[in-house]
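INFO  loader      accepted 1 record
INFO  loader      residues=291
INFO  predictor   begin
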Amino acid sequence: MVAYTILSGLLFGLYFSLMAIGLNLIFGVMRMVNLAHGDFIMLGAFAAFFAYTLWNMNPLVTMVFVFFLFILLGGALYYLVVPRLLRAQDPEMLSLILFFGLSQVIQALAVIAFGNNQRSIDYTALGSGTVFLFGQGFEESWVVVAAVSLLAIILVSIYLYATKLGVATRAVMNHREEAASAGISVHRVSAYAMGIGLALAAIAGVFSPFMIGSIDPTMGTDLTTTSFAIIIIGSLGNPIGTVVGGMIYGLSLMYMESYQPSWSSLVPYLLLFIILLLKPSGLLGRRMRNA
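INFO  predictor   done
INFO  writer      dumping tokens
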């Protein structure tokens, strides 16, 4: 039981890392908390549902379309909203209000378009077999999602540390004004970060029916809370620290669901409370930034 709990916690931890890493990337570059993050996960989930229901499209294929679609959407949203926010006296506080409003609009439109009924995807869409890891059997879909999540995290790391645009992104994350004075196109870098952040959220949404169950238009609020707790645990503004937070959240959630299932819904709030009390800068120790 202990081995199963730990291994399933690691599998889910990879998925939760994918869910939150886009939120941390956007915050790190723009110093704005995207309170609509969970709603973009919800949109990715419904894209996977309708693609599978209408065209029997495998979620792995849907993931590719969703990735490019939400990169474009994120870039457009950035140029439509963020430059205007940055000209305000308190852009970070204004961004909280704006993204909260955006979240409410997305939820309302989703209810109108999709209805309030919960939806799900056949769990065999990602494989119906059982995969054995260290003598423990897991659903094939869990292992597939964990593998895709790990690949996405590796690609984000390569983007940040091995590409010219990634180096510019980290420069903007460290000091936006100095990066601009060095000739880096801050708006271009930020637009890419917004697009990639939303695309990663949407990909997490594509796989959410296999990891967190049924989907509905109002699921975004809880997912934003969970993602926010994960990035606080790791380190706010450090995308790679999200992996640490995701693993701790996944292990904690699986432990609670195995031994105290009635308490499992409290996990993100308890972890958030504990980390803010003991180490508000997150476990990786990055200095807390204003938001």
